[in-house]
Amino acid sequence: MPDDVLPQTETIRTRADGGVLYATFDAPPLNLIGPELVRDLVHLIGHLNGSAPFRAVVFDSADPDFFLPHVDLTKVPEYTAEAAKAGGPGDASLGMLYQRLSRLPVVTIGKLRGRARGAGSEFLLACDVRFAARETAILGQPEVGFGAPPGAGAVERLARLMGTGRALEALLGADDFTADLAERYGWINRAVPGAELDAVVDRFARRVAGFPTDAVTATKTAVIRVNTPSDDEIRAAAVVFQHLVREGAVGPRTAWLLKNGLQTRSETERELGEAMATITPHHP
C-alpha cells in the first residue's frame, strides 16, 4: 500500500507490510497519553473500522523505555475531550475508546518493550494479543496508589484474565510486574527474549493476515462476545475514576509525584511501582 494512503498522524507512525499494519507510538519525551495521542488514536481506530485493507495491526513504541507509561496527569480534561470525539459526550473516556479498539474487525497485537502502566496497560489489555520483551517490559496499574480505581477497563479485563485473587493483587498493590510474572498471571500472552520479540510478533501477525478474513473476524467476534466487558461496565468505571480524580485524594498525591519527577525521565517514573509506596501524605 502506498505510504500516502496510510493513516499517518503526529504521534503514531505507520507502515504496511502485506496485510499487516505496523503502528508505532512516537510522542516524545515519554509517550504520555495526552490530547494529541488520543486524537491520533481516534483517527486511527476510525480508519481501521472502515474499509482499511489490513487484517492485523501491530502496536509498538519508538521509545525502548516507555511504551505508554500512563496518561498525562496535567491534561485529563483535554485528552478526555478528544476521546469523546469517537462516540459523543456520553462516552467521553479512554475506556470507551478502548472498547472500540477491542471490537475492530482486524486483529490487534501489542508488542511491548519498556513500561506500560495505567491507561497504557489498559490499551494493551484492549488489544487482542500481547507479547512482551522479557528483559525490559514492565506492566502496572498504579491508580489505587494515586487514590482512584482504574477507569479504562483494567478492573474488568484483568479480573477476566487473572481471576479474583491475582487481579486484586495487581490492582490493589499498585506495583510493577515484570514480563515473566505478567505472563504467569495471564496479563500478557507471552514473555520472550527481546532479541526474538520482533520475529515472534511478525510470524503471528503474518499468519493471521494470511488466513481467510471471514474466519478470522468471526472467531474474534465470538471470543469478544463471551469474554469482553460490556459498555455499561466500562462507562461505570469511567464515572468513578473521573469523580475521584476531581474530588478525591488523587490531586495531592499526584502533586507530590510530579514534584518528585513524575512525567520526566526520572527514577520516580522508571520505578513508579516503588514510588507509589513512598508518597506523602499517605492518606487524603
Verbal overview:
The chain is an alpha/beta fold and 284 residues long. The protein has one domain (3-278): 2-enoyl-CoA Hydratase, Chain A, domain 1, CATH 3.90.226. Helices cover 48% and strands 15% of the residues. The chain has 14 helices and ten strands. The strands form two sheets. It has a six-stranded mixed beta sheet with strand order 1-2-3-5-7-10. The protein has a four-stranded mixed beta sheet with strand order 4-6-8-9. Helix 3 (94-102) runs antiparallel to helix 11. The longest helix is centred in the C-terminal third of the chain and has 17 residues, at 194-210. It is globular, with a radius of gyration of 18 Å. The mean pLDDT is 92.
Briefly, what is this?
48% of the residues lie in helices and 15% in strands. With 284 residues, it is of the alpha/beta class. The chain has one domain: Alpha-Beta Complex (2-enoyl-CoA Hydratase, Chain A, domain 1).
Which features would summarize this protein structure in a list?
2-enoyl-CoA Hydratase, Chain A, domain 1; globular; alpha/beta; six-stranded mixed β-sheet; 10 strands; 284 residues
**What percent of residues are in strands?**
15-25%
Poorly predicted ranges: none
| Shape descriptor | globular
Output the CATH homologous superfamily.
Answer: 2-enoyl-CoA Hydratase, Chain A, domain 1
Q: Summarize the biggest pleated sheet.
A: 6 strands, mixed
- Per CATH, the architecture is Alpha-Beta Complex
Biggest sheet strand line-up: 1-2-3-5-7-10
- Kindly report the CATH topology: 2-enoyl-CoA Hydratase, Chain A, domain 1
What's the count of strands?
10
Helix share, percent: 40-55%
Number of helices: 14
Cα-to-Cα separation, first versus last residue: 54 Å
